[in-house]
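Risk register update: the risk that structure generation would not scale has been downgraded. Supporting records follow, first protein first.
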Amino acid sequence: MCVPQDYINIISDSALNIVQGFKYDNDSKKQYENYNYRKQIAINNALIEQDNAHKAMQEGIESSRKEKLQSIQEANKLKVRNSASGFSLNSDTSQEQYDDIISQGEINAKNELDLYNEKANNYYSRANGYLEQADEITRDYNSSLYNSAMIKGYLGNANKVAQNWYKDMNN
Protein backbone atom coordinates (compact mmCIF):
# COMPACT_ATOMS: atom_id res chain seq x y z
CA MET A 1 0.00 0.00 0.00
CA CYS A 2 1.20 3.50 -0.83
CA VAL A 3 2.10 5.46 2.28
CA PRO A 4 1.87 9.25 2.59
CA GLN A 5 5.65 9.47 2.11
CA ASP A 6 5.27 7.78 -1.31
CA TYR A 7 2.70 10.40 -2.30
CA ILE A 8 4.97 13.18 -1.07
CA ASN A 9 7.79 11.73 -3.19
CA ILE A 10 5.51 11.56 -6.24
CA ILE A 11 4.39 15.16 -5.74
CA SER A 12 7.96 16.41 -5.26
CA ASP A 13 9.08 14.41 -8.32
CA SER A 14 6.23 15.99 -10.29
CA ALA A 15 7.30 19.45 -9.22
CA LEU A 16 10.90 18.65 -10.15
CA ASN A 17 9.84 17.33 -13.56
CA ILE A 18 7.78 20.47 -14.19
CA VAL A 19 10.77 22.64 -13.34
CA GLN A 20 12.99 20.50 -15.55
CA GLY A 21 10.40 20.87 -18.27
CA PHE A 22 11.31 24.55 -18.40
CA LYS A 23 14.91 23.72 -19.23
CA TYR A 24 15.96 24.45 -22.78
CA ASP A 25 16.42 21.55 -25.10
CA ASN A 26 17.23 21.78 -28.81
CA ASP A 27 13.57 22.17 -29.83
CA SER A 28 13.09 24.87 -27.23
CA LYS A 29 16.11 26.73 -28.56
CA LYS A 30 14.72 26.61 -32.12
CA GLN A 31 11.32 27.70 -30.85
CA TYR A 32 12.93 30.59 -28.97
CA GLU A 33 14.91 31.66 -32.05
CA ASN A 34 11.74 31.53 -34.16
CA TYR A 35 9.87 33.54 -31.53
CA ASN A 36 12.66 36.10 -31.35
CA TYR A 37 12.78 36.40 -35.15
CA ARG A 38 9.01 36.91 -35.47
CA LYS A 39 8.94 39.37 -32.57
CA GLN A 40 11.86 41.36 -33.99
CA ILE A 41 10.13 41.60 -37.38
CA ALA A 42 7.02 43.00 -35.69
CA ILE A 43 9.10 45.50 -33.71
CA ASN A 44 11.05 46.56 -36.82
CA ASN A 45 7.80 47.05 -38.72
CA ALA A 46 6.48 49.18 -35.85
CA LEU A 47 9.63 51.31 -35.95
CA ILE A 48 9.27 51.77 -39.72
CA GLU A 49 5.64 52.86 -39.30
CA GLN A 50 6.61 55.29 -36.54
CA ASP A 51 9.32 56.71 -38.79
CA ASN A 52 6.76 57.08 -41.59
CA ALA A 53 4.44 58.88 -39.16
CA HIS A 54 7.18 61.32 -38.20
CA LYS A 55 7.95 61.96 -41.87
CA ALA A 56 4.27 62.55 -42.62
CA MET A 57 4.05 65.05 -39.78
CA GLN A 58 7.14 66.88 -41.06
CA GLU A 59 5.76 66.89 -44.60
CA GLY A 60 2.50 68.30 -43.24
CA ILE A 61 4.30 71.11 -41.44
CA GLU A 62 6.31 71.91 -44.57
CA SER A 63 3.27 71.78 -46.85
CA SER A 64 1.32 73.99 -44.45
CA ARG A 65 4.17 76.49 -44.34
CA LYS A 66 4.30 76.56 -48.15
CA GLU A 67 0.56 77.23 -48.34
CA LYS A 68 0.90 80.16 -45.96
CA LEU A 69 3.87 81.58 -47.89
CA GLN A 70 2.04 81.19 -51.17
CA SER A 71 -0.97 83.13 -49.86
CA ILE A 72 1.30 85.91 -48.56
CA GLN A 73 3.00 86.06 -51.97
CA GLU A 74 -0.37 86.25 -53.72
CA ALA A 75 -1.49 89.06 -51.39
CA ASN A 76 1.75 90.95 -52.07
CA LYS A 77 1.34 90.48 -55.83
CA LEU A 78 -2.18 91.90 -55.53
CA LYS A 79 -0.79 94.89 -53.61
CA VAL A 80 1.79 95.48 -56.36
CA ARG A 81 -0.87 95.22 -59.11
CA ASN A 82 -3.23 97.54 -57.27
CA SER A 83 -0.44 100.00 -56.59
CA ALA A 84 0.63 99.95 -60.23
CA SER A 85 -2.98 100.52 -61.30
CA GLY A 86 -3.29 103.52 -59.06
CA PHE A 87 -5.60 102.02 -56.42
CA SER A 88 -5.18 103.15 -52.87
CA LEU A 89 -3.41 100.48 -50.81
CA ASN A 90 -5.05 101.79 -47.65
CA SER A 91 -8.67 101.47 -48.83
CA ASP A 92 -10.95 99.08 -47.00
CA THR A 93 -11.69 97.16 -50.21
CA SER A 94 -8.02 96.51 -50.91
CA GLN A 95 -7.36 95.47 -47.31
CA GLU A 96 -10.34 93.08 -47.38
CA GLN A 97 -8.97 91.46 -50.54
CA TYR A 98 -5.56 90.99 -48.90
CA ASP A 99 -7.14 89.63 -45.75
CA ASP A 100 -9.30 87.22 -47.77
CA ILE A 101 -6.27 85.86 -49.61
CA ILE A 102 -4.35 85.45 -46.35
CA SER A 103 -7.37 83.82 -44.64
CA GLN A 104 -7.83 81.41 -47.52
CA GLY A 105 -4.14 80.56 -47.29
CA GLU A 106 -4.54 79.86 -43.56
CA ILE A 107 -7.50 77.59 -44.27
CA ASN A 108 -5.58 75.75 -46.99
CA ALA A 109 -2.56 75.42 -44.66
CA LYS A 110 -4.74 73.97 -41.90
CA ASN A 111 -6.34 71.52 -44.34
CA GLU A 112 -2.89 70.40 -45.52
CA LEU A 113 -1.74 69.95 -41.94
CA ASP A 114 -4.89 67.98 -41.07
CA LEU A 115 -4.40 65.73 -44.11
CA TYR A 116 -0.83 64.89 -43.15
CA ASN A 117 -1.76 64.45 -39.48
CA GLU A 118 -4.37 61.92 -40.56
CA LYS A 119 -1.70 60.08 -42.54
CA ALA A 120 0.58 60.16 -39.49
CA ASN A 121 -2.21 58.82 -37.27
CA ASN A 122 -2.73 55.94 -39.72
CA TYR A 123 0.98 55.14 -39.53
CA TYR A 124 0.89 55.30 -35.72
CA SER A 125 -2.13 53.03 -35.70
CA ARG A 126 -0.30 50.46 -37.83
CA ALA A 127 2.75 50.79 -35.57
CA ASN A 128 0.56 50.03 -32.54
CA GLY A 129 -0.82 47.01 -34.40
CA TYR A 130 2.69 45.70 -34.92
CA LEU A 131 3.56 46.26 -31.26
CA GLU A 132 0.40 44.39 -30.26
CA GLN A 133 1.48 41.61 -32.61
CA ALA A 134 4.88 41.48 -30.86
CA ASP A 135 3.12 41.26 -27.47
CA GLU A 136 0.88 38.48 -28.78
CA ILE A 137 3.91 36.56 -30.03
CA THR A 138 5.47 36.90 -26.57
CA ARG A 139 2.28 35.71 -24.86
CA ASP A 140 1.99 32.75 -27.24
CA TYR A 141 5.60 31.77 -26.67
CA ASN A 142 5.32 32.05 -22.87
CA SER A 143 2.09 30.06 -22.92
CA SER A 144 3.59 27.31 -25.09
CA LEU A 145 6.67 27.18 -22.88
CA TYR A 146 4.51 26.86 -19.77
CA ASN A 147 2.26 24.21 -21.33
CA SER A 148 5.27 22.25 -22.56
CA ALA A 149 6.84 22.29 -19.10
CA MET A 150 3.60 21.22 -17.45
CA ILE A 151 3.08 18.36 -19.92
CA LYS A 152 6.66 17.15 -19.48
CA GLY A 153 6.22 17.28 -15.71
CA TYR A 154 2.91 15.46 -15.70
CA LEU A 155 3.95 12.82 -18.20
CA GLY A 156 7.23 12.27 -16.40
CA ASN A 157 5.38 11.15 -13.27
CA ALA A 158 2.36 9.51 -14.85
CA ASN A 159 4.24 6.24 -14.99
CA LYS A 160 5.20 6.46 -11.26
CA VAL A 161 1.62 7.19 -10.26
CA ALA A 162 0.34 4.28 -12.34
CA GLN A 163 2.93 1.91 -10.85
CA ASN A 164 2.07 2.94 -7.27
CA TRP A 165 -1.62 2.65 -7.99
CA TYR A 166 -1.07 -0.80 -9.50
CA LYS A 167 0.99 -1.81 -6.41
CA ASP A 168 -1.82 -0.63 -4.13
CA MET A 169 -4.45 -2.54 -6.06
CA ASN A 170 -2.46 -5.78 -5.99
CA ASN A 171 -1.52 -5.70 -2.29
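Supporting record for the second protein:
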Amino acid sequence: MNLEEQYFSEKSVPYRYDILRQIALEPQEHTKSFFLKSFNKERHLDMRMLAMRGYAYYAEEAEIEPLMEKLHKILIKSAVSTPYNYEEYGLLMSDFHKKHFLDTYGYNCFKTFFEQVEKLYTDLPAVYKGLVTCDEQGNEINPMSDEEWEKRWDDIRKFTESLYKQGDTEK
Protein backbone atom coordinates (compact mmCIF):
# COMPACT_ATOMS: atom_id res chain seq x y z
CA MET A 1 0.00 0.00 0.00
CA ASN A 2 1.48 3.37 -0.98
CA LEU A 3 1.40 6.46 1.26
CA GLU A 4 -1.65 7.95 -0.46
CA GLU A 5 -3.67 4.78 0.10
CA GLN A 6 -2.45 4.59 3.70
CA TYR A 7 -3.54 8.18 4.27
CA PHE A 8 -7.12 7.57 3.11
CA SER A 9 -7.44 4.30 5.01
CA GLU A 10 -5.93 5.66 8.26
CA LYS A 11 -8.39 6.65 11.01
CA SER A 12 -5.84 8.13 13.44
CA VAL A 13 -5.46 11.88 12.96
CA PRO A 14 -1.81 12.00 14.12
CA TYR A 15 -0.85 9.18 11.74
CA ARG A 16 -2.73 10.83 8.88
CA TYR A 17 -0.90 14.08 9.68
CA ASP A 18 2.46 12.32 9.49
CA ILE A 19 1.61 10.70 6.17
CA LEU A 20 0.23 13.94 4.73
CA ARG A 21 3.31 15.83 5.92
CA GLN A 22 5.65 13.32 4.27
CA ILE A 23 3.86 13.70 0.94
CA ALA A 24 3.50 17.50 1.23
CA LEU A 25 7.19 18.04 1.88
CA GLU A 26 8.05 16.27 -1.38
CA PRO A 27 5.06 16.82 -3.66
CA GLN A 28 4.92 15.13 -7.04
CA GLU A 29 2.81 16.39 -9.92
CA HIS A 30 0.55 13.35 -9.74
CA THR A 31 -0.27 14.20 -6.10
CA LYS A 32 -2.14 17.42 -6.94
CA SER A 33 -5.51 15.59 -6.93
CA PHE A 34 -4.51 13.75 -3.75
CA PHE A 35 -3.93 17.08 -1.99
CA LEU A 36 -7.26 18.45 -3.16
CA LYS A 37 -9.06 15.37 -1.81
CA SER A 38 -7.10 15.66 1.43
CA PHE A 39 -7.97 19.34 1.76
CA ASN A 40 -11.66 18.51 1.46
CA LYS A 41 -11.44 15.49 3.77
CA GLU A 42 -9.80 17.07 6.78
CA ARG A 43 -11.58 18.95 9.55
CA HIS A 44 -8.54 20.43 11.29
CA LEU A 45 -7.41 23.72 9.83
CA ASP A 46 -3.71 22.93 10.17
CA MET A 47 -4.18 19.67 8.28
CA ARG A 48 -6.11 21.45 5.55
CA MET A 49 -3.24 23.91 5.24
CA LEU A 50 -0.81 21.01 5.10
CA ALA A 51 -2.81 19.62 2.17
CA MET A 52 -2.83 23.12 0.66
CA ARG A 53 0.95 23.18 0.92
CA GLY A 54 1.18 20.25 -1.47
CA TYR A 55 -1.69 21.43 -3.66
CA ALA A 56 -0.34 24.98 -4.05
CA TYR A 57 2.94 23.63 -5.39
CA TYR A 58 1.19 22.66 -8.65
CA ALA A 59 -2.02 24.71 -8.61
CA GLU A 60 -2.61 28.16 -10.06
CA GLU A 61 -3.68 31.03 -7.83
CA ALA A 62 -7.16 30.94 -9.41
CA GLU A 63 -7.53 27.29 -8.31
CA ILE A 64 -6.38 28.09 -4.78
CA GLU A 65 -8.52 31.19 -4.11
CA PRO A 66 -11.93 29.48 -3.78
CA LEU A 67 -10.45 26.87 -1.43
CA MET A 68 -8.90 29.55 0.74
CA GLU A 69 -12.15 31.53 0.77
CA LYS A 70 -13.90 28.39 2.01
CA LEU A 71 -11.22 27.86 4.64
CA HIS A 72 -11.42 31.51 5.72
CA LYS A 73 -15.18 31.10 6.33
CA ILE A 74 -14.53 27.94 8.35
CA LEU A 75 -11.88 29.80 10.37
CA ILE A 76 -14.34 32.58 11.23
CA LYS A 77 -17.06 30.08 12.21
CA SER A 78 -14.63 28.07 14.32
CA ALA A 79 -13.71 31.21 16.26
CA VAL A 80 -17.32 31.30 17.46
CA SER A 81 -17.67 27.60 18.24
CA THR A 82 -14.13 27.18 19.63
CA PRO A 83 -13.02 30.61 20.86
CA TYR A 84 -9.85 29.37 22.57
CA ASN A 85 -8.56 27.29 19.66
CA TYR A 86 -4.97 27.88 20.73
CA GLU A 87 -3.62 24.67 19.21
CA GLU A 88 -4.85 25.38 15.67
CA TYR A 89 -3.85 29.06 15.84
CA GLY A 90 -0.42 28.26 17.26
CA LEU A 91 0.29 25.69 14.57
CA LEU A 92 -0.96 27.97 11.79
CA MET A 93 1.13 30.89 13.09
CA SER A 94 4.31 28.78 12.86
CA ASP A 95 6.88 29.45 10.15
CA PHE A 96 6.03 26.05 8.69
CA HIS A 97 2.61 27.35 7.73
CA LYS A 98 2.37 31.14 7.79
CA LYS A 99 5.88 32.08 6.67
CA HIS A 100 5.91 29.36 4.02
CA PHE A 101 2.71 30.50 2.33
CA LEU A 102 3.38 34.22 2.57
CA ASP A 103 7.02 34.01 1.47
CA THR A 104 6.58 31.33 -1.19
CA TYR A 105 3.37 32.53 -2.80
CA GLY A 106 2.29 35.86 -1.34
CA TYR A 107 -1.22 35.42 -2.78
CA ASN A 108 -3.87 37.72 -1.34
CA CYS A 109 -5.99 34.73 -0.32
CA PHE A 110 -3.14 33.51 1.90
CA LYS A 111 -2.55 37.01 3.28
CA THR A 112 -6.24 37.39 4.15
CA PHE A 113 -6.37 33.97 5.79
CA PHE A 114 -3.25 34.48 7.90
CA GLU A 115 -4.29 38.01 8.88
CA GLN A 116 -7.45 36.45 10.34
CA VAL A 117 -5.44 33.72 12.07
CA GLU A 118 -3.15 36.37 13.55
CA LYS A 119 -6.12 38.42 14.76
CA LEU A 120 -7.67 35.38 16.43
CA TYR A 121 -4.34 34.44 17.98
CA THR A 122 -3.80 37.99 19.22
CA ASP A 123 -7.29 37.99 20.75
CA LEU A 124 -6.56 34.85 22.78
CA PRO A 125 -6.02 35.33 26.50
CA ALA A 126 -2.27 35.35 27.20
CA VAL A 127 -2.49 32.08 29.09
CA TYR A 128 -3.22 30.23 25.82
CA LYS A 129 -0.44 31.74 23.74
CA GLY A 130 2.80 29.95 22.96
CA LEU A 131 1.64 26.49 23.99
CA VAL A 132 2.33 24.79 20.68
CA THR A 133 4.05 25.42 17.37
CA CYS A 134 5.72 23.50 14.53
CA ASP A 135 9.35 23.14 13.63
CA GLU A 136 10.53 23.77 10.06
CA GLN A 137 9.52 20.23 9.06
CA GLY A 138 5.97 20.56 10.39
CA ASN A 139 6.49 18.50 13.53
CA GLU A 140 4.37 19.74 16.41
CA ILE A 141 6.62 20.88 19.24
CA ASN A 142 6.20 22.20 22.75
CA PRO A 143 8.26 25.40 23.00
CA MET A 144 8.37 25.29 26.82
CA SER A 145 10.26 23.40 29.46
CA ASP A 146 8.32 20.79 31.42
CA GLU A 147 8.23 23.14 34.41
CA GLU A 148 6.84 26.02 32.32
CA TRP A 149 4.33 23.63 30.73
CA GLU A 150 3.00 22.47 34.12
CA LYS A 151 2.72 26.04 35.38
CA ARG A 152 0.91 27.13 32.23
CA TRP A 153 -1.64 24.31 32.53
CA ASP A 154 -2.20 25.28 36.13
CA ASP A 155 -2.79 28.87 34.96
CA ILE A 156 -5.22 27.63 32.30
CA ARG A 157 -7.13 25.63 34.91
CA LYS A 158 -7.38 28.73 37.14
CA PHE A 159 -8.45 30.88 34.18
CA THR A 160 -11.15 28.39 33.18
CA GLU A 161 -12.41 28.15 36.76
CA SER A 162 -12.63 31.94 36.94
CA LEU A 163 -14.79 31.96 33.79
CA TYR A 164 -17.19 29.47 35.32
CA LYS A 165 -17.32 31.42 38.58
CA GLN A 166 -18.23 34.54 36.58
CA GLY A 167 -20.88 32.55 34.71
CA ASP A 168 -19.08 33.31 31.46
CA THR A 169 -19.12 29.83 29.96
CA GLU A 170 -19.74 31.19 26.47
CA LYS A 171 -16.05 32.12 26.10
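The longest helix spans residues 61-81. On this basis the risk owner (M.S.) recommends closing the item.
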